[in-house]
Amino acid sequence: xxxxxxxxxxxxxxxxxxxxxxxxxxxxxxxxxxxxxxxxxxxxxxxxxxxxxxxxxxxxxxxxxxxxxxxxxxxxxxxxxxxxxxxxxxxxxxxxxxxxxxxxxxxxxxxxxxxxxxxxxxxxxxxxxxxxxxxxxxxxxxxxxxxxxxxxxxxxxxxxxxxxxxxxxxxxxxxxxxxxxxxxxxxxxxxxxxxxxxxxxxxxxx
Length: 206
Known about the structure:
Elements: H1 28-36, E1 42-45, H2 52-59, E2 63-66, H3 71-81, H4 86-98, E3 100-101, E4 104-105, H5 106-112, E5 115-117, E6 124-126, E7 129-131, E8 141-145, E9 152-156, H6 159-165, H7 171-183, H8 190-197, H9 202-205
Parallel strand pairs: 1-2
Antiparallel strand pairs: 3-4, 5-6, 7-8, 8-9
């Protein structure tokens, strides 16, 4: 072949569910388009296997048509293609942080969902993530990086941690809201999206 492989100029974008997507370095698609296409060419992406492919093509100045059969990929593509500016996102997060949640603000409420006790120094800290068993009410391990003692890695979730986390509200309302935001009026996708949502533990959805 007389067209060389183009490695791209950046790292692989850190996307939600990115570990399930083919790894495509930033700049690979746009660089290929700019090098081998004419300014008014139109591009067909018949597979839609990674939302960053059509986004990079469009960002390079070309019209692109893509087909996406996976509703999660379609939703990701829609969100990425219409992503807000950083300033808009920061403003929205600030509004969310000060929004009322019962007798407190939303930010401390959300942070409290991730509170655990450091297994090394016993300070209360925020976990980076949790590991769950399907159908369980609480996670069984927490991924932490303690700002007090520097301990990092996975630790067991104790009964005290579970008391700190408290009881989660019902997932049904939050799941229905997420379902309607993804599906909209397309009832044909409802069962597929619901199956995808059921793969998530309650905490990330709530």
